[in-house]
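Hey team,

Filing this mostly as a record. A colleague (T.K.) asked me to run one chain through the structure pipeline before their review meeting, and I want the input and output archived in the tracker in case anyone asks later how it was produced. No errors, nothing strange. Just documentation.

Input sequence:
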Amino acid sequence: MTHLGKIGTFVAVLYPFAVAAVLTADFSFKWIAFLPILAGFLFCLRPGFRFLAFVGFFIGGFMMISGYTMSVLWYPVMMNSLIAFIFAISLRSKPLISVFAERMGYILDTKGHVYARRATIAWAIFMSGLSFFSLLSVFGPLWVWTVFNGCVSYILIGFMLAGEYLIRRRVMCQTG
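Output structure:
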């Protein structure tokens, strides 16, 4: 992982805890809007990530302009929804898992393409569910939102990623 990737990951993990600290201490929530803008800037520096840069700038700008304190809590909902949408929309042409597998050097046969399509559907559903639970956490106590979006969601994504990766390796070894 590059230095920019490490910084971006740190910013993403830091976000829920920074929001909780700022809202608990009654600081201006607009300072939190700089984190998605920073993430957008970091993505802007990486080729192929211009869309995510735009999303970071848009979300951060929305937070600053809206003047709505609760808007900072919607960032995980929007990002999870966006990722679910990207997985789902990729099903119209080339499933995203196919793209990942090919970048890893696998040549997909029919069985591999079927697996990639199903895995992409699984990721779209998983991220939609994560988005739904992030949405529910917005309306709960701040500590629930912080724990879910700062810890639980990352653990769940890690389990999904690890499980899907292990299954992908097994299926791809069988196919090519």
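Quick notes for T.K.: The mean pLDDT is 82. The longest helix spans residues 142-175.
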